[in-house]
């Protein structure tokens, strides 16, 4: 795809991850909604079905070993791409078609942040605009102003909700936000000293997108990202639609009906690779907003920082910075990462086979390290 400047739509080597990556990419993927089986299991599914094409940065032997069904994951899909040849493979109970569709969970947030930054570039609002101005009456009157930029970077200070969703409940975005703003729950922390990963931030951003454009979030994803990039398998299902078009990567287990703009989309590995490459190469954003993708918030508790001002997760692989996002839905744990400029990309999805999160973090770090 040729590189073209962003324009507003007419209608509107084998490596290891460092501790930073372990704390960010793997931890979020495990804690953002994955439901792990009650005990570790051994799977004797089919062997790795991969297509290896020589490239110095893909350790195919290590990938094959790491993807074999075992104690860490009963099934794994990996797609490596970017500049030069790539590699794809799938194991275990996953579809042996590495291009199969799956629910991407919180990787959805990258699409939301991209929409928001596009709207900033069009002058609809700024990163310093309080969300209270854009969505009057949505947040409690006694809360201090929370800017769009703080929502993007998970520095809003909004704590986790103290009110749980009921079984089978499928609330609207407004009802979902009410769980975080219930009078019984704590108010946002001030001053904000560290990032706190929170789906409320992206529910609010999805509502901002709809208010600013007058169109649904799902329509904006298609209008501004999916159709221009040719992402034919990437979309937000309609409320109540829990189906996944064939071929399906895996049975994701219980589907959360309320994830919407913070975790509700479907896609596949080729689409995610194309999206991530376009995003990092500046094909979706104007230059000023493109720079925000790589600015890390200046917080006094900087050791915990892992999300940029534009919503990207930052990690390091043997002194090489990579950017992306993790996401979970049902039993699956997913991720998409790329090196600077989208030169190398990796998309993965796996079915964890145990509860040991430290070992799972290490497994994911080795998996992505071998891929990049």
N-end to C-end Cα span: 22 Å
- Summed up, the domain count is 1
Biggest sheet character: 7 strands, antiparallel
- CATH-level-4 superfamily name: DD-peptidase/beta-lactamase superfamily
Number of helices: 12
User: What is the percentage of strand-forming residues?
Assistant: 15-25%
The CATH topology annotation reads as Beta-lactamase
Structural class: alpha+beta
Name given to the CATH architecture? 3-Layer(aba) Sandwich
H/E series: HEHEEEHHHHHHHEHHEEEEH
User: What share of residues is helical?
Assistant: 25-40%
Which runs of at least 5 residues are low in confidence (pLDDT < 50)? 1-56
Please provide the count of β strands.
9
Work out the radius of gyration: 20 Å
What's the shape?
globular
Architecture overview:
The structure is a single chain. The protein is an alpha+beta fold. It has a single domain (19-371), classed as 3-Layer(aba) Sandwich (Beta-lactamase), CATH 3.40.710.10. The chain has 12 helices and 9 strands. The strands form 2 sheets. A 7-stranded antiparallel beta sheet has the order 1-3-2-9-8-7-6, sandwiched between helices. Strand 7 (320-329) and strand 8 form a beta hairpin. The longest helix has 15 residues, at 199-213. It is globular. It starts with 18 loop residues before the first helix and ends with a helix. Mean pLDDT is 82; it is low at 1-56.
Write the layout of secondary structure elements.
Blueprint: H1 19-31, E1 49-52, H2 60-67, E2 73-82, E3 87-90, E4 101-103, H3 108-121, H4 131-134, H5 148-152, H6 173-180, H7 199-213, H8 217-229, H9 260-263, E5 266-268, H10 269-280, H11 287-292, E6 313-317, E7 320-329, E8 332-339, E9 344-352, H12 357-371
Antiparallel strand pairs: 1-3, 2-3, 2-9, 4-5, 6-7, 7-8, 8-9
Helix pairs in contact: 1-12, 2-12, 3-7, 6-7
InterPro entries: AmpC-like, Beta-lactam-related, Beta-lactam/transpept-like, TAT_signal
Protein name: Serine hydrolase
Domain Beta-lactamase-related: 96-353
